[in-house]
Structure formats: structure tokens, C-alpha cells
Amino acid sequence: MSKTGYLRFCLPVGDCLAVSLMGRLVGSLMGSVAAMTSLAPSAYAAVPTSGQRVAEALAQAQAARDGGDSETLARALGVIDRSGAHPLDGWTGADPVPEWRSTVAPAGSPLRGSPLGPGYRLGKVPAGQSDSFEQVFLSGRKASVSVATQGGKPVSLRVTDGDKRIVCQSGKDGPACNWVPLFTQRYRIEVHNGGQYLANYYLVVD
Questions:
Q1: How big, in percent rounded to 5, are the helix, strand and coil portions of the chain?
Q2: What is the pTM of this model?
Q3: Pairing state of beta strands 86-87 and 119-125?
Q4: What is each CA distance from 195 to 58, 62, 149, in whole angstroms?
Q5: Average pLDDT for residues 106-117, to the nearest whole number?
Q6: Of 3, 45, 128, 187, which has the most beta carbons under 10 Å away?
Q7: How do residues 119-160 score in pLDDT, each as one tens digit?
């Protein structure tokens, strides 16, 4: 083998052929794979999940209701209803969606979507504090938790398993958390308010 990284073969007639060890090609392929791998998470995160869209719609609907903007409220309710979103099981808070519906649609209008849609809950978190609750997720099925706030107040998500190990945290792409549980168990979902003011949050589990 020569110092240039080529393997030299000589034919019986005395002619020699220099054959590359494919190092350059392999290096190029590995570089391409690395590039695709590094781009994939960002590209995936750039596409909002259905839960993120519903969380944003809930926040927009509340702001529209408070501001008397019935057109924006109707659009936000359309997103919520088409998704089939419903209050999370076990949540005992007041659900504002029925009241929102009553202000933009005639009584008796069927606006609800599929009962199998994502679940939501609303809450308040004082500055520098956290709010948490538990939710069961099934093994092998993608889990998605998204949260939005009125006015874009900074909140973050953290999900821990039964052994208090962190399985997912929201990152730079926004307050959303996606993972695939290894086991069916109860997980704790924590919403932390890192801002200086009270945050009204709208959380969706999909």
C-alpha cells in the first residue's frame, strides 16, 4: 500500500492500477448521513403537532373572548372542535369552551368533533413556581404534551416517570414535549413559570 492511501495492483502485462480504498467515498457518505441526522430533529420540531395547534387555539380563544373578537374566537374554536379536543379525565377545573361556543354559535349547533381527540386542561402558575399533575401514557405509543400561554409568557414543561427520572423536557423549539414511553405507567407533567408574572396556561395531551 502506498502512502497516499491507494492499494496498487499489477497485472501480468506489467501495467499497474491504482485503486482507492474508498475512504473518500465512505467519508462523504458518513458526512451526508450526519448532516441528515442533525437536520431531522429541527425539521421535525418546526412542524407543529396537533396538540401544539390546539394549545395555541385555546390561548387565542381566551384572548379573543376577553377582547370581544368573535371572528378570531370562532376560528380558534374551529381548530379546537375539528381536533375533537376535550377536557382531560380527572381535571376538575372550569372548562371555558362551552361558554365560548355559546357566544359564537346558535343554541344547539353541533360543533363537537371526534371524542377521540386530544385532552386539555387550563391552569395558572405564579411567577417562579410550578404546577403539576399526573397522566397515564401507554407503552410504545407516541406521547405529546404541549402548552401555550396568553401573551406568550415563558413557561416550560418537564415530564418524569414513576421513578422521578426525567423522560422529556421542552426545548428551544417551544413549550412542547414528545417521547415514546417504554412502559405503560403514570407520568408527572410539570409546568414551570420562569417569568415574572402570573401565567395562564393551556395544556394539551395528545
A1: 35, 30, 35
A2: 0.63
A3: parallel
A4: 20, 20, 12
A5: 45
A6: 187
A7: 999 999 999 999 999 998 988 888 899 999 988 788 999 999
